[in-house]
Specification:
By secondary structure, the chain is mainly α. It has 14 helices and two strands. The protein has one domain. It has a two-stranded antiparallel ribbon. Strand 1 and strand 2 form a beta hairpin.
Length: 285
Amino acid sequence: MKLRSKLRKVALYATIGLGMPIAFLACNEDVLNTLASTTDTVAALKEALTIGSKTAATNLGQEGGYLNDLAVKIGVPEEVTTVVELANTTAGKTFLTAIGASVFNEDELVTLMNKAAEEAAPKAAGIFSNAITSMTISDGETILFGAENAATEYLRDKTYDGLTVTFGEVVRGTFDQVSVSGHTLNDAWSGFSSYYNKLAELKSTSKGQLAMATLKIGLAAAGKDDIYNKVNAIQTVNTDLGEYVTGKALDGLFVKVADKEKGIRTNVAERTSELLQRVFGRLDE
């Protein structure tokens, strides 16, 4: 092995330089093998993660990469779900009309969020690569012989906060670039959050309280008390959607990195380098 050979040469030169007998090297063959094996393991884990992140960024960056994949598709925030549930009831529609709330398009919002993540995904490869390169893997053997997504989880644990910032800037930059029916994601979310916040504020007015009382009766009659409780708990929402979409987009990327890691661990054909074959081949023994 090239790496082991280099390590032996370094050790040999060191022993000669220190005036130690060359036999010392032979006595420490096991130490050298362990050192080489550990170095190989860390390098292989980083290579596997790099391949996984590039594959994830490429696949999710294709048209429909997020939207058409149920494993990573970005759904609406909880606040939107509450209003959608409300709007799908007779009492809810009457309530929304009474307070002057506009109707919004849930499907459009979902499409725009997923398109924004899709647009940002190709740029994630470089961000992940930098994180992986600078990452110190303290226990390569434990990760190698751990769960099928152990390396991905290690990467997530060590880099998620930093990636949220760097990738978040990329994601936010897409919000005015993607559009559906002439509406950008910023337009769609601003429209929804504004009327959602209007709903939250109106609850404290006499008009809003009267509408809420009527809503409670109507939803109770339909057996939808749970929806009333959700609406009653509504607070104003942050009009910035960046954190939500960034988090969901990153989660999707990590799902796909984990898929690739599992493939390398379990499928010999996916070990595309001599290093991957040698290190991950140990799992087959």
